[in-house]
Specification:
Elements lengths: L19 E5 L6 H15 L5 E4 L7 H9 L4 E6 L1 H11 L6 E5 L5 H5 L7 H10 L1 E13 L5 E6 L2 E4 L1 H8 L2 H7 L4 H9 L5 E7 L4 E6 L1 E5 L3 E2 L3 E2 L11 E6 L3 H16 L6 H7 L8 E6 L1 E14 L2 E22 L4
Length: 336
């Protein structure tokens, strides 16, 4: 599916009626340093003064996004890490109000997958006020724990059980704040030493139940991770489907197969025509499998750690996830 970015509508009688709301994580963003640039841009483009709303530990963005909608925002700017973006996007899903990104975290996963500028705040703000609108998919998930209660959330990039979720659960938050992605090194080591496999029953798009043992399962609306890692090479944010990768290595050689697929084939060969021809000669490996669909139902033999867009969401005994196509509008640069 190819979506054409559509320039936002402008008011025919007074451009000053257009107003942005900026929802920001004060830990990630220096608001005082950014205000002069945004004020100058408002004057240049004829937008009214932006409403600034700060997130808190108790409310990481949902209440602020609801306030933005109530205020009649023409665009909502999310400034923070992946968690802030996910929470704000969840509140905007289906509203028709565009989401603009001001990358301010360590991962910036959605911005990376949309090829947006990561380190130019002024350019990101200009895109928010003068860019074009692009509809993308969101994924929705119902997570049921051992207590029988169901929690519903939406995510933009990936949901995962296994290695990635255990890694996040083992990550020291203070170290992450100081060292960024280096904080995950110790956590990865702890997760890799966990020999427990996922034992699950799944049903993809109503095709019937199947059983599986795996080390990790990830469901992705986007395919790229930091460090230029292309985990899901066929994933697209606007194709009405999500992509699934199942990792089931058997010992050290299995991990070598996985690393070869992800870093060599996806990361190097797939990026050139000659490389893609070489890929046609390689065989699929049992250690890594790809699936594609619109709805996935999973039941686990025991509760397992689950993550959404890089944040831990506790344990899941079962979950159901599905695609909500074109349910979020994202503000893109005009040339996109």
């Amino acid at each position: 599916m190819t979506d054409v970015a559509v320039p936002p509508e402008t008011s025919s009688d007074s451009t000053s009626t257009r107003r942005a709301v900026l929802i920001y994580n004060p830990v990630k963003l220096d608001a005082d340093a950014l205000r002069p640039a945004l004020t100058a841009l408002e004057t240049e483009t004829g937008w009214a003064e932006t409403l600034w709303l700060e997130t808190t530990e108790e409310d990481p963005g949902a209440g602020q996004a609801a306030e933005a909608l109530k205020a009649g925002a023409d665009v909502v700017i999310a400034a923070g890490g992946d968690g802030t973006v996910r929470v704000v996007a969840e509140a905007l899903r289906g509203s028709g109000v565009p989401l603009a990104l001001l990358p301010s975290g360590t991962g910036n996963l959605l911005a990376r997958n949309l090829d947006l500028t990561l380190d130019d705040a002024e350019n990101s703000l200009r895109t928010a006020l003068t860019g074009a609108d692009r509809p993308i998919d969101m994924a929705v998930i119902d997570i049921r724990g051992d207590d029988g209660k169901t929690r519903r959330h939406a995510y933009l990039v990936m949901a995962g059980l296994g290695l990635d979720a255990k890694m996040l659960a083992n990550t020291d938050d203070d170290l992450k704040a100081k060292a960024g992605w280096l904080a995950y090194v110790k956590a990865i080591g702890l997760a890799l030493r966990d020999k427990n496999q996922l034992r699950l029953r799944y049903n993809l798009d109503g095709r019937g139940n199947k059983t599986l043992r795996a080390h990790t399962i990830m469901v992705g609306n986007c395919g790229s991770l930091p460090a230029n890692i292309l985990l899901l090479p066929d994933a697209a944010v606007d194709d009405g489907e999500f992509d699934i990768v199942v990792l089931r290595p058997e010992g050290f050689f299995g991990w070598i197969q996985i690393m070869t697929k992800i870093f060599w084939e996806n990361g190097v060969l797939r990026r050139t025509t000659a490389g893609r021809r070489l890929m046609g000669l390689t065989k699929e490996v049992r250690a890594l499998n790809y699936l594609k669909g619109k709805e996935l139902v999973v039941s686990l033999s025991r509760a397992e750690q689950i993550q959404l867009d890089g944040d831990s969401f506790g344990e899941a005994r079962s979950f159901k996830t599905w695609i909500d196509p074109s349910s979020l509008i994202v503000r893109m640069p005009p040339e996109a």
